[in-house]
Amino acid sequence: QVQLVESGGGTVQAGGSLRLSCAASEYTSSIYCMAWFRQAPGKGREGVAYITELGSTGYADSVKGRFTIARDNAKNTLYLQMNSLKPEDTAMYYCAAREHSPCSLAYNMDYWGKGTLVTIPS
User: Fold this and answer.
1) Do the Cβ atoms of 57 and 69 come closer than 8 Å?
2) Are 35 and 48 in contact (CB under 8 A)?
3) CA angle 51–64–32, rounded 5-degree value
4) What is the band of 28 on the pLDDT scale with cuts at 50, 70, 90?
């Protein structure tokens, strides 16, 4: 079983930046798909970004141009660089992984972290 542990959440003013990290118990190079999802209070889960083992990426329209997903296989870590943060980005952010292709925010993930909270005051 793959274990995922998120970190880096916190409170940042609108327009600021934050970098989330997700440490994996397995080499990230052996996990085909890794992704970030988020859930705001009273809202459903929303896919944010994904990345394949070879570096192909995809983003939700709401974060394109502001967020960047990356993975460091040597450190078994997934990252989400969040810039130009907005109050609507406030949510619990979850790291997720899928063992095999395909990789997109529309496909089921096999493993989930417990989440890290990001708060952007209005």
Assistant:
1) yes
2) yes
3) 5
4) low
* CB-based burial, 34-43: b 16+ in 10 Å, e otherwise: bbbbbeeeee
The two tokens of residue 76 are: 């078994």
Torsion angle of the four alpha carbons 54, 38, 68, 111, in this order, in degrees rounded to the nearest 10: -20
Give the residue from 52, 5, 2 showing the smallest Cα distance to 25: 2
109: pLDDT strictly greater than 90: yes
Q: Which regions of the chain does DSSP assign to beta strands (E)?
A: 4-7, 10-11, 18-24, 33-39, 45-52, 57-59, 67-72, 77-82, 91-98, 111-112, 116-119
pLDDT tens, 68-89? 999 998 888 999 999 999 999 9
Convert the pLDDT of each residue in 37-47 to its tens digit: 999 999 999 99
78-42-102-67 Cα dihedral, nearest 10 degrees = -40
